[in-house]
Amino acid sequence: MDATVSTGTEDSVWGGGNRPLGASYGKMMMWFFIMSDALTFSGFLVAYGFSRFKFIELWPIADQVFTHVPFFHGNYPMYYVAFMTFILIMSSVTMVLAVDAGHKLKQKKVILYMFLTIIGGAIFVGSQAWEWATFIKGDYGALETNSGRILQFVNAETGERAALADFAETLPEERVQHQASEGIWFEEEGYKTSYSLNEVVEGFKATPNILIRTEQLNEEGEKTLLDRKQSLAKILEANQVVEGANLIHNEYGHRLFADFFFFITGFHGFHVFSGVVINVIIFFNVILGTYQRRGHYEMVEKVGLYWHFVDLVWVFVFTFFYLV
Amino acid sequence: MAHEHKLEIFRGLLKFKSNTQKIWGVLIFLTIVTTIEVALGIVKPRALTHSHFLGMKLLNWIFIVLTLVKAYYIAWDFMHLRDEKTSLRRVIVWTPVFLICYLIFILLFEADYIYNVYKDGFITWNF
Question: Which residues of A touch B115 (CB under 8 A)?
Answer without folding.
Answer: 53-57
